[in-house]
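Usage example:
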Amino acid sequence: MRRILLVGNPNVGKSSLFSRLTGTHIIASNYPGTTVGFTKGYLKLGEEQAELIDVPGNYTLEPSSKAEEVAVELLKEGDLVINVVDATNLERNLNLTLQLLERQTPAIVALNMWDDTRHRGINIDIAKLEELLGVPVVPTVGVTGQGVTELVRHLPEAKAPENPRTYSNSDERWARVGKIVSQVQSLSHRHHRWYESLEDVSSHRIGGIVVALLVLFATFWFVRFVGEGIIGYVAEPLFEGLWTPLLMKLSLALGAGGFWHNVLIGNLIGGEIDYFQSFGLLSAGLYIPLAAVLPYIISFYLALGILEDAGYLPRLAVLMDTIMHRLGLHGYAIIPTILGFGCNVPAVMATRILETRKQRFIAATLISIGVPCAALQAMIIGLVGQQGVGYVAMVYGSLFISWVIIGLILNRAVKGFNPELLVEIPPYRLPSWRVIGEKLWLRVSGFVKEALPIVLGTVLVVNILYTLGVFNAIADITAPVLTGLWGLPKETITALVVGFLRKDVAMGMLAPLALTAKQLVISSTVLAMFFPCIATFVILARELGARDVLKAVGIMITAALIMGSLQNLVL
Amino acid sequence: MTTYQNEQLTLAEMRTGQTGSVVGVLGGRGLIQRLDALGIRQGKKVTKVSSALFRGPVMLRVNSSQVAVGFGMARKIVIEVDKHIL
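Running the assembly step on the lines above writes:
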């Protein structure tokens, strides 16, 4: 099967085009480094099926980060290259184009973001560009799909230039780029879009801070408002009105007790089903993922999608740079960190956009310790929030303090280099609602498909282990730490053990323990910090290697021991 | 009559809004290459867009794109500033 590669500078729309070409939706955003691994899809090329690979963006074929190394490795195995070029930034993009053409792989150029050239007053002579490059050039708009059919139609015409040029150094290549640009591009009056003046405000040293505070506040408010709205107006009415009556009938049929009643429904609280305390497959097992967590997954990823596509995140990276340097990172590490508030798995993978091993180790460790995922957060808000907002703030405050202190320590302790920030800041773009919707659907359905089976499996295993009395044995062994250091009842260990599988389920298991507000704060903080969930652990091991993942886990356990004990003393 | 008097500054020293051309990068091959890839290279016109507080990154415009450069790097990029004197 022929292998086609989508190659281009970061943030030129490769992932959007990939979705369009293959019909497989993948995450695309408006910041450099969205794609860090490679994504494979298929497309029909006449009668033939071809493999299409979305290659992480790179500026040159001399890699400077792990994501760029992936790109250069992939190039060796491509039969055909679709070089995606940002039409609004021809000069910089063509530098990579010339490097690709030097390699003699058949190529075609997709002149993407074609719609943006008009209001920027950029005119490009496509026929002339084709002639100068010696390969076909097709204008496209990845976000709307414009030009994609033409691109596919012209794919068979992709070729290596007939009289290939090689350049002995970068200056020579840039000179050629300059010559091409001067012949194909003419500039006319540009029309400012209203949101472009926002760029000036958010680039300003004070204005940028004001904008950041407004954005963070608005995001937080939006996530809560939408999340609680879905819970209050959709999820709870559905469960209470439709599902509870059915379950009560089942409960009666099962004789209101016994093994199967325990597994399917759990204990009744005062003769009623309490979705936080009745720990059965069909009660909490469905309620936790679908009614407590899913609404927050939807609201968080909706907000994140808008921020990503508008192009805000790189600006936040610039703003956070000085602070992040204290933690052994640079500003761009804020992007994986923010992804972590959704799910730690893609967040740890996204640490590949950082240049050095030291940065990746620190970023991944800090995310696993101090950044609770949306599922865990939803349960913290739902459960600890019942005791008062102040207690929720204590959990977040403790996590934030741990994040900072561990970062400060690791910056000194971890050997290696923390280079400075060097990143392109994309223009603000008005997000396309269709793209945002598709991305949201991708992430939400991903959650349901991946999390729901694990949640149900976990609830089942927990119920069986309860029946077998296994947890009691563990509880007795760990009682000194739990009761002695953290002031928690020894039964809390069941939740911590389950936290290795799913942290939202683990939080759910705290509900029936009748903990005090202080104990709830301690147990949820410890649960967030002490160990990554299994999915994150696997990715950590893959990204960091066996030795470093052990170190990271050691740091997590130590940090949780200390933080839990401190909370027990201070609160 | 307008005459131009040119002055060499590092990107870090430049004032926000000033434009000039890159004279050179006082750094190793790696840094020169990374900047080169982003279009920041000798002879190129750049405009300083902003600088963050506490020696944070400097933002500059080169061609039609904006690039954020760490403060340390900004001190290694030498610019010949265009200066209008009446």
